[in-house]
Amino acid sequence: MVPREVRSIDDAKRIIEERKLTHIKVGLFDNDGVMRGKYMSKAKFFASLEHGFAFCDVVLGWDVKDQLYDNTRYTGWHTGYPDAPVRIIPSSCRDVLDEDGMLLFIAEFAGEAETVCPRATLRRVIDKATAMGFNAQAAFEYEFFLFRETPHSAREKGFRNLETITPDWFGYSMIRNSTYSGLYKAILSMAETMDFPIEGIHSETGPGVIEAAIAVDQAADAADKAALFKTYMKVLAQKNELMATFMAKWSNDYPGQSGHIHLSLNHAADGSSAFYDASQPHAMSPLQRHFLAGQQRLMPVLLCMVAPSVNSYTRMIPGYWAPTDATWGVENRTTALRVIPGSAKSQRVEYRIGAADANPYLALAAALGSGLIGIEQGWEPSDPVTGNAYQQPHDDALSLPRTLWDATQAFKASDIAKSLFGEAFVEHFSASREWEDREFRKHVTDWELSRYFEII
Questions:
Q1: Strand ranges (DSSP E) for 287-347?
Q2: Contact 315/404 with Cβ under 8 angstroms?
Q3: Is the Cβ–Cβ distance between 313 and 380 less than 8 Å?
Q4: Which residues contact 286 (CB under 8 A, 6 or more apart)?
Q5: Between β-strands 348-351 and 328-330, what pairing exists: parallel, antiparallel or unpaired?
Q6: Smallest Cα–Cα separation from 422: which of 45, 83, 116, 148?
Q7: Is 224 exposed, middle or buried (0-12, 13-18, 19+ CB in 10 A)?
Q8: 3-class DSSP state for residue 180?
Q9: What are phi and psi of 401, to 5 degrees?
Q10: Which runs of consecutive H residues, i.e. helices, occur in 333-422?
Q11: Which residues, 6 or more positions from 87, have their beta carbon under 8 angstroms from its beta carbon?
């Protein structure tokens, strides 16, 4: 049996027995999309397949630096950080990069923890789509920078003067992908082995930056693949004495790094496209217009789910390929939403506001959930933008929050967010973003020292 044929508990047990494994790798994703996990003995794993297992809920109560939130209700010092129930997803079984015969399974929180679990939050949105008669398909594409650094050297340098793997601005370079063909082939091979196949990969504009487009899949699987790609791209880099970063923007000198999402809906009843209508302008069906309108109208209040860090907002400035308002256009890369006309198979929306640092489960939940609300409400989008969206005035209602704090306050106050994702999730995630913003404000930046130290 091969890993991606595993569908049931019995299948999972069978492949483990076939491979004579003594231990199995299990991982889940925290608020920030960071994969946390461990190796588990075969006996423990078999029991967990049947009954679940317990995992300390601190991973839902700390930040990317393992610092504990002081403002959350779900978990904290006041609860004593108890174990929470976790279920293993048999169908997530995969081979693992450079671990001969080892298997990886994705897990997700259950019970009360399920109300704040990122993967479960996306699943609830997908369940809504199913109840409305739709199957959602999605594909993620990521930009990331590669450096000739290690975790030790980057810290020794204070994350300054880092050496990128290649110099200068050279997007779509055949020289770069040929010179570094070994690296590109290793990325492509990993993606095939771990089943997040890459549809296209190329150098982007900027030193050491690469863009990878992951193949389209059903929404839940697409998010799993995106989350695994981000995790194991970092693993592959570090195994080769390199480092990959998915920060939204790591340097003032270069554009930010995007995490765009392509989305479409099919009718569950017959598999036909819900977005394609050849008789309409740009082949946009009424359902696609309503979906687009929901994404547009709700983008300002859901922004912290797709721009979840303080750093995310340094990317959203005019002229750097990142939108600053909730605009849309047809084949327009200066807008937040890009309608891509095509056939019944390819008609879709590209959600371009997303940054590479977003948790894929939450970014997709926001992009899909907002569109579904638009369909439910029968909303209509604004007029499309033609030309450069950065140089045109837009309705104030389309203005996006400029900071993580402002975005979080809009999200926290949104009744639609609470109805879509659940009050428990909105409260918990809002608290985690407020914590993130407060942690940043505790620090003095280089810009402040340079500007004020001598002169003020």
A1: 328-330, 337-340
A2: no
A3: no
A4: 277, 280
A5: unpaired
A6: 116
A7: buried
A8: coil
A9: -55, 145
A10: 360-377, 404-412, 415-421
A11: 52, 107, 108, 110
- Asked if 371 and 291 touch (Cβ cutoff 8 Å), the reply is yes
Given a contact cutoff of 8 angstroms between Cβ atoms, the answer to whether 303 and 343 are in contact is no
Angle at 211 between CA 206 and CA 217, to 5 degrees: 165
Residue type at 95 in one-letter notation: D
Query: Which residues of the chain register pLDDT less than 50?
Result: none
- Which amino acid, one-letter code, is at 281? P
Residues 360/33, Cβ–Cβ less than 8 Å:
yes
Burial 405-432 (b: 16+ CB within 10 A, else e): bbbbbbbbebebbbebbbebbbbbbbbb
Closest C-alpha among 263, 264, 140 to residue 198: 140
Per-residue pLDDT, 322 = 74
* The two three-digit tokens of residue 142, written as one number: 């990521």
Residue type, 306: V
May I ask the CATH architecture of the domain 3-116?
A: Roll (3.10)
156 three-class SS: helix
pLDDT for res 287: 98
Per-residue pLDDT, 319: 64
C-alpha 392/C-alpha 269 separation (Å) is 42
Residue-wise DSSP of 230-270: HHHHHHHHHHTT-EEE--S-S-TTS---BEEEEEEEEETTT
Chain-centroid distance, C-alpha 120: 14
| C-beta of residue 166 within 8 angstroms of C-beta of residue 178 | no
Q: Residue 277, Cβ neighbours under 10 Å: how many?
A: 18
What pLDDT shows up at residue 255? 84
Rounded to 5°, angle at Cα 12 from 8 and 13: 120
**What are the boundaries of each domain within the chain?**
3-116, 129-415
The pLDDT value given to residue 317: 77
Q: What CA–CA distances, in Å, run from 253 to 256, 310, 450?
A: 10, 18, 17
Instruction: Please give the Cα distance from 120 to 358 (Å, whole number).
Output: 16
d(CA 236, CA 253): 26
pLDDT tens column, 15-38: 999 999 999 999 999 999 999 999
Domain 129-415 class, CATH top level: alpha beta
DSSP category for residue 147:
E
* CA-angle at 109, arms to 225 and 421, nearest 5°: 80
Please list the residues that pair with 349 across neighbouring strands. Answer: 263, 339
Q: What does the chain come to in residues?
A: 456
Give the three-class secondary structure for 161: coil
Distance of CA 256 to the CA centre of its chain: 15
